[in-house]
Amino acid sequence: MADSDSSHDSADEVKRKFREALERKNQQNARAADHLDGRSKASAAHTAASHKREFRRKSG
């Protein structure tokens, strides 16, 4: 029984370490996504063209 207790403890230790690592990872991702709340610098990237586009065939 002592062997199963030690393996259970080590499994709990591994789970705890993974949980801590996942929390650290999620905290870093949350900080990196903060810029999404701001406005884009390109405010008018897509505007209507002032003239109709003209397509011509290649000659030659």
Outline the structure in words.
With 60 residues, the chain is mainly alpha-helical. The protein is 52% helix and 0% strand. It has one helix and no strands. The protein has one helix at residues 2-32.
Q: Radius of gyration from the CA trace?
A: 29 Å
**Beta-strand share of residues:** under 5%
Gap from first CA to last CA: 89 Å
**What sequence of helices (H) and strands (E) makes up the elements?**
H
Question: Structural class of the helices, strands and pairings?
Answer: mainly alpha
Helix content: 40-55%
Count of alpha and pi helical runs: 1
Mean pLDDT: 76
From the spread of the alpha carbons, the general shape counts as elongated
- pLDDT < 50 stretches: none
Sheet of most strands: none
**How many beta strands in the DSSP annotation?**
0
Write the layout of secondary structure elements.
Elements: H1 2-32
Write a compact overview of the structure shown:
By secondary structure, this protein is mostly helical. It is 52% helix and 0% strand. The longest helix has 31 residues.
Which labels suit this protein?
mainly alpha, 52% helix, 1 helix, 60 residues
